[in-house]
Amino acid sequence: MTPARSDPRQRRSPSARYPHDVFRAERCETAEAEHLFEEARAAHRGVSPFPLAQLDFRRGVMWLREGDLPTARSWFDAARRRVPGYAPATGHLAEVDLLLGAPETAVARLRPLMETGDDPEYPAHLALALRAVGRHQEARPWRDRAAERYEDLVARHPKAYADHAADFWLMVGGDVDRGLQLALQALVMRQTGRSYALVRRAREASGNPPTTPPDRDTQRPACEATCLTRRVPHAGGASRSRPGA
Q1: What is the per-residue pLDDT across 147-170, written as a single tens digit (0 to 9) for each?
Q2: Domain count across the chain
């Protein structure tokens, strides 16, 4: 008799399920994403903490985009508990600090990352946090460092970084024209809700709001732009599961 085969989906590691979780999260299908995240965590049988830390981090990013700051913070904290030196989780915790009106805490989190990472989001967020506490002269070199790094990344990997760079120029960089140019470039490469929302925000910032109805995907407010542009936590929607819950 041939042994019964288990469902291959039950044997997939968190890293194998990870793209599906991220896809659902980026489509703002939070209920389905939560289910997939839970499945991936339950399926993990390895000893390395990194796959689960990645899942916790992406889960935090999803809720940060939704505007649920407490839930986002809890998942970023969970990722850091698994891997204390996990820079992306620390950087996003600093982003939550900024959104919650604690820029000094954000500065303290971000300082160590300046020595170890080359992600332009870190100096960009540090510049924003320093501005928030009135240290504009100190913020300038970090803004310039982020700008140089974003331009380099867009030149080499436009599809991956055009939208991030557009958001930088619209906010920290202070160049609306460059932000609009990059937002349009990102939209040509990826017709997503985030891309349409980014173009709309760039046009509004430039004083030329769109005259046509928004794409249907931009009706989802949770997908709009990046989290630093939002100040009001999201209410309602999918059930929020937190670490240890």
Answers
A1: 999 999 999 999 999 999 999 999
A2: 1
